[in-house]
């Protein structure tokens, strides 16, 4: 409580009328002589007024004492030593845009006009809120793009990541703009105000560390660190620049932000005004400029073509699916064409099989194949051209490397099922997890949509026995496993799953996941690393802090990023 300064109180001045020809004393003496009774009455009244004033002041004295006492107590409380806490943590973003200024931006006439789907476009059927509110009424402040196509339907009722059934022709991108994303927090879908706060904090760290050319550098991201503090730790390998750039952009797209987003804030460290629309646009332009004539984002001779190109293809197709902008359509289609061209042929030339590090290298692995399947699924939802045979080939390879007795999946062949994939001297001391079984579940889920596939339950059983645990001493951290398992289990028996016994696997996984990631995201408003995650997990040596922050942010977007691939439960009336 602020201290009262009695010297600042207003001073009351009593003024008498001054007659032009006589002094006041003379006028009062004359008045008294001529009006004795009136003067006496006035004197009495003045005495009573004085008594009343004294009484009033006396009655207010305790209040003054009380104020002084409160001030003294306040001073005493303030003088007490603060609780011993080295870090003053930031507040939760209770409202996603609470600390953000939204402004109108000028239209860039150098870019082509945005186009919209025609009347034959099929719209998603799962965009209602939990209280039955119409989706268009539920968009709230998060929706800046209330566009309609020629049929009068709103564009984002069908294409924003997270709605629809997730199946072909069902409008699998459907509406995170204040709709499905906010609905998951309100409706018990697993996300909370804390997980959404973590998403926002992760995006802000990523935005702060974006390079001027629009990319994210796993090795040199530190050059964007706040110069007045300690540089963020944990570098990655430079050959993953395209991959981690795409992964970072996917984190923004997964939260519903595209190149037209008007959200902005002033970065507390660099004092730069960061505009989310520019962050996304510049990143996508970097990817597009990296593409060659064949549609590849990295040279085909690159030993990490499979990872870099597949994640970039996923990113570009998702950007087109979310915005329907011709800025990204050609790039997205060329990326998918190049991905299919790099798929290994099946033995005997009978169709496709899967992918590995280089295009048509002759060998396959389930990890690269998992990212490729997600890119193809995104292309399917966005209405781009691709061969269904590519999905069938990926599923067939997944069948080949899956142990049908326990659901474990091998890296390149079935004999490796359950074995640890490692790089000696880098991560061979980390605990082994069923990460590839989680990838296998996603391949099966998004290629077949078969809830009765027995391998799904076997895979879920493995993950239920190996829940997320943050323990650097025991080397349990594996963000890659946590991401794929979160996606697989959310699809399998999450809130939108049609399974009768849903929640058996998803709920315990989700609760331990939130504890592991929420408790260990950097939460220090005075540190440049605020909002990020340490990059020293099982695969962090590859992509560093940028990879760690991007994939963990994506993990917290699993609640709304994709609709359920098995179809959604009908809302009870």
Summarize the structure.
This protein is mainly α and 573 residues long. It has helices at 24-34, 36-79, 135-138, 156-159, 180-186, 193-208, 241-254, 276-290, 305-323, 326-341, 366-382, 388-400, 435-448, 454-464, 479-493, 506-518, 540-555, and strands at residues 101-102, 263-266, 273-275. Helix 7 (241-254) packs parallel to helix 17 (540-555), helix 9 (305-323) runs parallel beside helix 11 and helix 11 (366-382) runs parallel beside helix 13.
Structure in words:
The protein has helices spanning about 25-35, 35-80, 135-140, 155-160, 180-185, 195-210, 240-255, 275-290, 305-325, 325-340, 365-380, 390-400, 435-450, 455-465, 480-495, 505-520, 540-555; strands at about 100, 265, 275. It is mostly helical and about 575 residues long. It has two domains: about 30-55; about 180-555, Glycosyltransferase, CATH 1.50.10.20. The chain has a three-stranded antiparallel sheet. It is globular, with a radius of gyration of 33 Å. About 45% of the residues are buried.
